[in-house]
Amino acid sequence: MLGADDGAGICGFLWPTCSRLVPCNSSDNSCLQSNTICVEHPQCDDRPLCYPVTMMKENICPPMINKMNLKWKLDFSIVAGGNGHGNDLNQVTTARGIYIDDDKQTIYITQYNSDRIVGWKFGEESGEIVAGGNGQGDEIDQLNNPSDVTVDKKNDLLIICDQGNERVVQWSRQNQIDPKVIIPKIKCNGVTIDNNGNIYVSEGETHSVIRLKQGETKATTVAGGNGHGYEPNQLNNPAYIFVDEQYSIYASDHEYGRVTK
């Protein structure tokens, strides 16, 4: 099977010797020779090669991307901030984790050095403080260098990694209940939630991801936790995390420059 440059792919016999095949034009993967097509032929060369069409059968193989068809979509807009660094509500400074709630048309932004979470409605010119904002501290109504935020939609709660205070806290989005510590004594980096309302937290000190099931008070380790290392069962200071619909956990393994599943 040989990958072609036309977006379709080809299958062909491998009878022609490698020495007969000429490299494709490197700028656009084209072939100057008549009755040839640019293909990927790893048995002969790492570079794409021009292959005789008489040796080809069916258009059923995986394609090779044509460089001439690659385009960068220039669709850029500022959705929050853009007014310089500062603590005004039309500014964003030291932003860390974010959460986008399409239902409420709001983006939630953790502002690390400002010790607060800001909710920014789509299309608005400024945001509003939805958690913290009462100075840096360890009181229940304060945050200390928050690093990430997610939303428990079922219970209408913000779940926040309060990194400087080494805890995970919840805040009501409607201010109907007081803030509450739900996971104490944890050097958290990132936080997310699955479709069942289970909370996942990445922890730098234990190089692990833990899960707190809905309605429970004790968390369990679901990834890592075997010391820091490069083995498949290890992490090294995992940062931001994501859980998909199949409950697979994706972790940005900060110190090793990789994303693991």
UniProtKB/TrEMBL annotation:
Entry GO CC: extracellular region
Keyword line: Glycoprotein, Signal
Source organism superkingdom: Eukaryota
Database matches in InterPro entries: 6-blade_b-propeller_TolB-like
SUPFAM superfamilies membership: Calcium-dependent phosphotriesterase
PANTHER family recorded: PEPTIDYL-GLYCINE ALPHA-AMIDATING MONOOXYGENASE, SMP-30_GLUCONOLACTONASE_LRE-LIKE REGION DOMAIN-CONTAINING PROTEIN
Protein's recorded name: NHL repeat containing protein
Organism of origin: Adineta steineri
